[in-house]
Amino acid sequence: xxxxxxxxxxxxxxxxxxxxxxxxxxxxxxxxxxxxxxxxxxxxxxxxxxxxxxxxxxxxxxxxxxxxxxxxxxxxxxxxxxxxxxxxxxxxxxxxxxxxxxxxxxxxxxxxxxxxxxxxxxxxxxxxxxxxxxxxxxxxxxxxxxxxxxxxxxxxxxxxxxxxxxxxxxxxxxxxxxxxxxxxxxxxxxxxxxxxxxxxxxxxxxxxxxxxxxxxxxxxxxxxxxxxxxxxxxxxxxxxxxxxxxxxxxxxxxxxxxxxxxxxxxxxxxxxxxxxxxxxxxxxxxxxxxxxxxxxxxxxxxxxxxxxxxxxxxxxxx
Length: 318
Ligand SMILES: Nc1ncnc2c1ncn2[C@@H]1O[C@H](COP(=O)(O)OP(=O)(O)O)[C@@H](O)[C@H]1O
Ligand SMILES: N[C@@H](CCOP(=O)(O)O)C(=O)O
Fold this sequence. Notes:
Bound molecules: adenosine-5'-diphosphate, the ligand N[C@@H](CCOP(=O)(O)O)C(=O)O
CATH architecture of the largest domain: Alpha-Beta Complex
Family: Belongs to the pseudomonas-type ThrB family.
CATH class of the largest domain: Alpha Beta
Keywords: Amino-acid biosynthesis, ATP-binding, Kinase, Nucleotide-binding, Threonine biosynthesis, Transferase
Pathway: Amino-acid biosynthesis; L-threonine biosynthesis; L-threonine from L-aspartate: step 4/5
Strand order of the largest sheet: 1-2-3-5-4
Domain Aminoglycoside phosphotransferase: 27-253
Protein name: Homoserine kinase
């Protein structure tokens, strides 16, 4: 459960009084997620998401995320916008944290996607990339390829307390990724964390893309590689039906298109994605506060995915 900051009923009542979105009926901490504190808030006017930004989200980046959401929503993508209060303020402070009141979208996250669900989700990402082609704001990726080695060094040999030999394993894989990382592919603003838990669906239909707080400017095909690393495996990191991986590539290709160079780079981009999530999960595994209501994510599930990408010949086969 990700609730790092407890919100009192009194503070939430005062917070809601700034908006024209009804009075507090109930508020419940949301079990999913690891980065921010999220509450489902029911008011006399409807249902909302309350997010308090924690840990990796810098308050100064929030205007970029909100502008991105407004831009893609205005172009027809199903993403949640944050509401402005009566004074036009979107980003507030609550219990000492930056906070927003956000549109609630229906749908659920799948844990073992079918090929048709994977196809629909990747197509939704492709449509979002279309909309982002004329979004001119930029945000550097603070968890990009150049940040992985400093993060590895910050984790240090403590990695070996998670699994014997993990530091050397990651060090070797990272050296290969750094050597082979493509530097000439198209760059765009990307989501950078489009895991199944960040796509809301009803049956095979996408009802919402959420959690844009890692969005940044980076290699566009890296977004698909991140998605593949998250969707083509079960939560423990074991590969699903290979048709799921193929559906991701086909869904994206049909909606946006992949150049030959992007397609050829997918394996190294996916190995990079594995290292990125392995390292942040490992850091969190070693450093999450004992009193946080959060279920830490398993770094080794990403070591297993890395093993798979290293030994598999063809990305499309996955
Ligand atoms: N706009 C939304 N509409 C409906 N549910 C949402 C919305 N935003 C978040 N959620 C729910 O809250 C959970 C955690 O949100 P998420 O943004 O992934 O958290 P975190 O920022 O910690 O990664 C999601 O898995 C989803 O169940
Ligand atoms: N998707 C990342 C971390 C962020 O997870 P989220 O549930 O808060 O979106 C991971 O799985 O490591």
